Amino acid sequence: MQEPVWTDAHAMNPSEDLVILTLLEQAQSLPDEAREPWLARQSASEAVRAQVRRLLQAERRMADFLETDDGLPAELAFPSSGDRLGNYELLHPLAAGGMGVVYLARRADDAYEQQVAIKLIRTIHLHGDERSREALIARFEAERALLARLNHPNIARILDGGRTADGLPWLVMEYVDGVPITDYCEQRRLDIDARLRLLCKVCDAVQEIHGHLIVHRDLKPDNVLVGDNGEPRLIDFGIARALNQPQTPAPAQERGTLLSAMTPAYASPEQVRQQPLTTGSDVYSLGVLLFQLIVGQRPFDLAGLDLDQIEQVVCQAPPPALRQALRGAALADDEKRRRSVRVGADLERIAAKALDKDPQRRYGSAQALADDLRHYLSGMPVQAHPDSALYRARKFVRRHALGVGITVAAALAVLIAAGVAIHQAAIARRAASDMEQTNAFLIDVLNLSDPYQSGAELSLGDAVDQAAELIEERLGHRPELAATLHLTLGDSMRQRGRYAAAEQQLGKALAQSERLFGTDDLRSIEALLTYAALRGDQAHYEDAEPLLHEALARIDRASALGSPLHQRAINQLGVVHLAQNEFEEAERYLSQALAADDSDPDRDSTNRTVTLSNLAVAARGLGDLDRADRLYEEVQAIFEQRFPQGSAQFAILLNNRGRVAYERGDIQRAADLGSQSLAMNRAVYGNDNSLLALPMFNLAFLYNQMQRPDIALPLAEEAFELADRTLEDSHPNRLRALVTLAEALRQAGRSAEADQRLASAEAVIAADPDAGVPVARYLERIRSELCKMPDPVHGCQAKTDLNQAGR
């Protein structure tokens, strides 16, 4: 008879188990011819190396295990492809893990079509004595019993089970057609937030099994598969254990099975030591997975380490901080930067807490870890605390609360009384000076709009524009106050569509704030966000997006996550993605902004309604028109109550709600909403503002669709005149207005003029191809329609000449 893979002459100690498993895992990653020379160089004992050799030999014998059962006891013949197990036919192998073999199978009783995964005990473990085989079969059936208790969307379900005619147990599981979670994230280049959301779902699944008093004990990427639908599924409960069962050291005949199943790179210190486990062991494994998803590698590299080093690393060495590990990660520089922007101090604390060597100081549950990750994603405070002097000080204070409290209270009472008085006096003096100088400046602004003072009647907006020129003259000696006024006036110009003037003022505000207060001061961050908003308004999204990510990094360094500035930054990021038709990304950021609003009952509710309105745009872009209209309806009810005379935001909502009506095929309702939007915009901005161009050409577009050039043409002409005068040539809104005008001219029978307008747009796009992306299909359709007109136009002839030359 063939020599058993595992000998039962003695029970290996836990440390020996660990080094054998580690050497086996490392050797399996090498080519066959390199394994023996590498193994001979290792510092392990000859007995350990011999055990690793036997395991590797068994692995080689398993190369064709699915086609033959040579050497197996006759009573345990192994099934192969094409065999039937109950109602299922084995198709082909999917994987062979430490304990089991998994086949893809199909339902073969013609009841219905279904693909499943069928797991059987791996034959390498069935060559031992009868007692050993019985123990392994009992463990396999325990997995089946554990799985039967679970029902969660992120856990692969058990469907059926039984034994072969020869007594070999098998279980039928839901087939998960996916890839390991780490591969999924890398293949799709998911950003940090998307990776964290995936891990939260894994935590939910782990919490489900913990709720059934089960510890998985082998959480690693290969056991978390993600399908094309983006849903992670937890699989392989081969070494899971029920917590309500006695936890005693494994008997000798089971140690080989446990050894070949456990993955030390993801195992907790207590698991490595084979100490009694709690749910905290799975939390540690989730921490390793979190680290790997962010950095691209595990926190510890065990390759080439001897026994003492392995134990020291796993059980004593602290993991590196996330940002430090990212700097040294094997990633492209741009990918490092992309990830680093979203890895803040709070996320580092979360990873450190999950990876704490002491189970009592890790998260108490997978749910607690998921909650902190979700708080981080939404900008809310997290519960994680780093292992630091401050942490130890807090522990000391808790142990000696009464004595410390009395001492500190007495000292603080004296210090606070003196400090507050001095500080308040300084603040009062500074505030009085600021108020006096600001009031004097505002009087000058009002004088500019007074025809008796200025000699001509100016609007308040014109007065504000002129006042900006007085800031340095009047407030040069108070640069911090000048920076604030540059920001205020620049934002006013931006909101009124005066982008060139706004850029000058906001550029000054940002430069002055950073010089006076530092880059991470909240005033500088506010100036940066406003400047980013301007770049977005100018359609320079390639500038706006990195500015907003930089603002988020500064907000994190300023410990202002969850603040109104943080909510504003993620909302602006959502809007930038909306403008580029990146609706999934937009929805992600806008949902975070909404969560931040909802978490703060004192926050300005106007922000929430704007975010809801933007979320409706994202829902429309994703094709969920019902949800978009529900969100618009909710916001419109609020606006009707709050702004009965209308407002700029209300006008935007009406315009966007008209888009939903158009996509539902109700063009007349879309035009009615567009007309209301345009009228409200005129009431807010007057008749000579660049912000009117968008609702104008939108309404002209709708009347073009209804074949009403009599209405569409004057609207399109006015829209283009405004856009041409106030926007850059390559601005998407100017090009949209230009193409809409061309269509109105075509429908009015003015083909030559329509051709000239299209040619003008095509010239801009030829010089700046990126500018043409938002209007490319629209322009192509209008050009096609124009070329069908009876009278030929130059643009069509040019295209014909090019086509003939190409032949």
Which helices and strands, and how do they pair?
Blueprint: H1 14-28, H2 32-40, H3 46-61, E1 84-85, E2 88-96, E3 100-107, E4 115-121, H4 130-148, E5 158-163, E6 169-174, E7 178-180, H5 181-187, H6 192-211, E8 214-215, E9 224-227, E10 232-234, E11 241-242, H7 252-261, H8 269-272, H9 279-295, H10 307-315, H11 322-327, H12 333-340, H13 345-354, H14 366-377, H15 389-399, H16 401-448, H17 451-454, H18 460-467, H19 471-475, H20 479-495, H21 499-517, H22 522-537, H23 541-557, H24 564-579, H25 583-598, H26 605-621, H27 625-642, H28 648-663, H29 667-685, H30 693-705, H31 709-726, H32 732-747, H33 751-767, H34 776-787, H35 794-806
Antiparallel strand pairs: 1-2, 2-3, 3-4, 4-6, 5-6, 7-9, 8-11, 9-10
Mean pLDDT: 75
How large is the radius of gyration? 34 Å
Question: Outline, from the CA principal axes?
Answer: globular
Based on the coordinates given, report the CATH architecture of the domain at 178-396: Orthogonal Bundle
Structural class: alpha+beta
Q: In this structure, how is the largest beta sheet organized?
A: 6 strands, antiparallel
CATH class of the domain at 178-396: Mainly Alpha
Distance between the termini: 77 Å
Number of strand segments: 11
Instruction: Report strand %.
Output: 5-15%
Uncertain residue ranges: 1-18, 61-76, 248-261, 387-402, 418-434, 446-458, 798-807
- The level of helicity is 55-70%
- By CATH's scheme, which homologous superfamily of the domain at 178-396 applies? Transferase(Phosphotransferase) domain 1
Placed side by side, the strands forming the largest sheet appear as 1-2-3-4-6-5
CATH topology of the domain at 178-396: Transferase(Phosphotransferase), domain 1
Number of helices: 35
